[in-house]
Specification:
This protein is of the alpha/beta class. It has eight helices and four strands; from the N terminus they run H-E-H-E-H-E-H-E-H-H-H-H. Strand 1, helix 2 and strand 2 form a beta-alpha-beta unit.
């Protein structure tokens, strides 16, 4: 295993050292009355770890635990650095990683999508090899619903309060997005849930993690084959 939290610099300078850095991107934001604030970060970290375990040319960086989460500001405990800060952070982080042949940014938070795209566009224009990847899901179950609850039951079941898991707003994300962006999640869903977590299981979560990992590996391999060097 190649991880910055356990490696020293000579290991990365040695012949045959990993040539790709993978960085998990998350958030610290409310996830309903039953899930911890760190859901997006934990999911991104788990997927990045799966990539690092399966590809020998990858080294894993510590996760970035803060993102653009202003839409969740109506709930106590949410911490957000905003879009501009996320974009700047990613640009400078990747620029600092020129010792590697490429950087993979695995984002577990949908609110990071806009600054992530902008950062990748700028970095690519500078000639840097960057891949951004995010997991997909049902637009009617976009936040703290069955999918994320199942995944957390698979990853860290002790952090899930299933007796407190209740439905939120189950309309498709595109339908609620205008109100959400104007007034925040709380205006759309008073309990902070977009979806229905009732019935979530660890088995279902493990299957989702497998599907996401396969998708990440496929994207990584296609990107890597076009950026050897």
């Amino acid at each position: 295993m190649s991880r910055l939290d356990s490696a020293a610099w000579p290991q990365l300078a040695a012949p045959g050292a990993p040539r790709v850095l993978v960085v998990p991107l998350g958030s610290t934001e409310q996830h309903g009355p039953h899930l911890p604030f760190t859901v997006d970060t934990e999911i991104a970290a788990a997927l990045a770890e799966s990539l690092e375990r399966r590809r020998p040319d990858v080294v894993l960086a510590p996760a970035v635990p803060y993102g653009s989460s202003g839409e969740h500001a109506g709930f106590p405990g949410t911490l957000s650095i905003g879009r501009a800060a996320v974009e700047l952070l990613l640009v400078e982080l990747v620029r600092s990683a020129d010792a590697f042949g490429g950087v993979v940014l695995v984002s577990g938070h949908g609110g990071n999508a806009v600054p992530l795209r902008a950062a990748v566009a700028l970095l690519s224009s500078e000639g840097r090899n960057v891949l951004a990847w995010s997991p997909s899901g049902d637009p009617r179950d976009s936040h703290a619903g069955r999918l994320e609850t199942s995944v957390m039951l698979a990853l860290r079941p002790g952090a899930v309060r299933m007796p407190d898991a209740v439905p939120g707003d189950v309309r498709p994300l595109a339908e609620v997005l205008p109100a959400l962006m104007e007034s925040g999640v709380r205006a759309v869903s008073p309990n902070g849930v977009l979806g229905n977590p009732v019935g979530a299981t660890a088995r279902e979560g493990a299957a989702v993690l497998t599907r996401w990992t396969d998708s990440l590996l496929t994207s990584f391999d296609a990107w890597r084959s076009g950026h050897r060097g």
